Amino acid sequence: MSVNVRKSVKEFNRSLSKTSWRSKIKISLNSRIIISATLVLLVFITLTAATLERAFFESTETALKDKMESQLYLLMAESEIDSEGLPIVSASAMDSSLNMPESGLYAFVIDDNNQILWSSNSTLSVILPEPGSIQTGKKIFSRFKKGTETFYSFSHGVNWDTDNESINLTFTIINDLKPFNKQINRYRKTLLSWLVAMAVFLLITQAFILRWGLSPLRKVGKELNKIENGQQDCVEGVYPLELKQLTDNINNLLVQERQQKTRYRNALGDLAHSLKTPLAVIQNLVNDKNISDPALSEQLLQMNNIVEYQLQRAATAGSSQTGLAIPLKDTVEKILASLEKIYRDKKIQCLISIEENLVFKGDEGDLMELLGNVLDNAFKWAQQKVEISATQTEKLLEIIIKDDGPGMDEDQIENLLQRGIRADQTISGHGIGLSIVTNIVDAYDGTIQIGRSYHGGVSIKIKF
Amino acid sequence: MRILIIEDEAELQSSLKSQLETHGYIVDTSGDGKEGLYFASEFPLDAAIIDIGLPNMSGIEIIQNLRQQGNSLPILVLTARSRWQEKVEGLEAGADDYVVKPFQIEELLARLKSLLRRSNGSAKPEIRHGCIHLNTDSQECFLHNKSVNLTAFEYRLLEHMMKNHNQVLSKSNLADYLYPHDEDRDSNVIEVIIGRLRKKIDPGNSLNPIETLRHRGYRFKLSN
Predict the structure, then answer these.
(1) Of chain B's two ends, which shows fewer C-beta atoms within 10 Å, N or C?
(2) What is the pTM of this model?
(3) Would an 8 Å CB–CB cutoff place A285 in contact with chain B?
C-alpha cells in the first residue's frame, strides 16, 4: 500500500539539459591549451628542422663545390700537354684519392670531341657516365644519378696554349655523394635528437607552467564544487587579480541570492501576518458573539487553509545549486526538542537513528517545514512511540518516520496527499501539513511513500 | 489565574481578553513589546500569551529577556507566522507552546490550561494540599472532598496562595494579583477576604491553613 509522487517530466528535462551541457564542454581548458601548444610546437619544430637542414645542406653543398673547384684548379696546375696534345698529370702532386680505385673522387680531361684524353686512376674499375665538353671559360657544377648512386660533377672548359697550337679542354672532377650524404645524415640525426629533446623539455616546462598558471582556476573550481555540495557558503580563497573580479562577483551573487530569499520569506511572513490576523479577529468575533453558523465557520476554515497552503507553497525554496549542506541530525533534534515541549503531557518516546555526517542539500527552512509537519503529525497520533531514521546511499537520502498511532487506510492516504483535504477535522492543520510536505518533496524532485509501520501506525518514507 | 496578553491588534486583544475573562481568568493586556516585557517582569502572573510581531520589541525578544531574568512564567506564543523554522525559533527562545492564528478559542484555552497545569507540576487540573483541593478547570474548592462555596475573589486568592504553597505573599502582592487594574485598592479588603476564606476552608479552626506573618504577609501552609 503505497503512493508514489514523481515528476518524471522534470527529471527528463533535467537529464536532457545536463547531457547537452556536458556534450558542449568535453575538453578541459587545460587539455585545450596543452593540445594547441603541442601542435604549435610540433609545427615550429618541423619547420625549424626543415629550415636548418636546408641551410646545412646548402652550406655543405657549397663547401663541396668549393673543394671540387680547388681540386680542379690543382689538377689544372699540375697538368701539362705533351707534344701529341695529350695531358700529363703528375701523380704525386694530385689528390691521393684520385689514385685510389673507387675512392669516390674521379677526374677527367676531355677534348672538344668529348674524347677522354686523361682520367684518374680512381676511375679504373668504375663505370661512370662520360662527361661532355663545355665551352671555354664556363664552369658547371651539377648533380646526376647513375644507377642507384648520385654524383656531383664540376667541369671547367679551358683553352690550353701549347707551343704549336691552342686546344680546348674540359677538366671535370666527379665526386660521389656517399660522404656528403653521410655528413647530412649525421647532421640530421644530431638535429633531430636535439629538437626532440628540446620539444620534450618545452612540453614538460609548458605543462608545469600551465599547471602553475591554472592552479587558481582549479582552486576556484574546487571551491565552487564545495559551494554546490553545500560545504561552504562563499568563495573564500585569495586569487590573482584576473580571477578576483570573477570570485567577487560570484560571492556578491551568492549573497544577493540569500538576501533575496530572506527578503522574500520576510515579505511572505508579513503577508501571512496581515492576512491571518484579520482572520483571527473574525474567528474570535464569531466565537465572542456566539454566532453558530456552520457555513461561516466552514468558509473561515477554508480561507485559512488556502492562505496557509499558498503561503507555505510560495515560501518553499526548492533545490538550488547554492544551497548549504544542512546537518540532518541537528535539525531533527531541534524540531524534536520543540515537539517534546508541545506534547510534554503525552510523554512520547522518540528513537532517532541518524548518523552525524548525514546532510540535506537544500534550504534549512524547507527541511524544517518538511520534518516539522511530518513529525508533528507523528506526535499527534502516536500512543507512545515515534521513530525517525535516515540513511544515505550514493546520492539518495532516505528519511523514515514511524509512529504507533492508529494508522490510515489507502483512501485516507490518497486524500491526505491532495491539497487541503483533512483526514481528521478535530486535529488542526493535519491535511494542510501533509500537502505542504508533498509540495516540498516535489520541489526537490523527491518521492514520498505513506504506508503502515510495524507498530500499526503510519510510516512515511521520503527520498531525495 | 492571572494572564497577560501581549497583542498589538486591538480588536483581537479585546476579543481575547473578554473571552478569557468569561472563562474566569484575570487578564492584563499590552499592545507594545517593551510595555509587555515590563508587565511580564513585574506582575504576579500565571501565564502569558505573546504575539511575535509587536511594536518596539518582538515577542521573541520578550521571551528571551524573561528567560534571561530567570523568569519561568508559562508562555504561549500566538502568531500568524506558521513556518516550522519560526515555531522552533520561538520555542527555542523559551516559549512553552505555540498557537497559530487564526485559532479556535477552545484550542487556545485547552493549550493555556495545559500550560497552567504543567506549571503546577501536575498533569491533572488540580491543586491539592492536605484535605483541601482545587479543580482549576471548574474553579471549585473542596474540603475533605466536599464542595466549598467560594466567591470569585476568594477562589482566585486561594488558588494563588495554594500555587505559592509555603511562600510568604505580601498584602500588596495579593492585592496586585486580585485587582490588577485598580490603583486605589484598599489593603484591608485582603484581610477581609482572608478572614472569610479561613472560615470557609477551616470551619473548625483546626487546620490553620493560612498563617499571618506580622508585617510580612500571609502563607498557605498545609502539609499533605
Answers:
(1) C
(2) 0.60
(3) yes
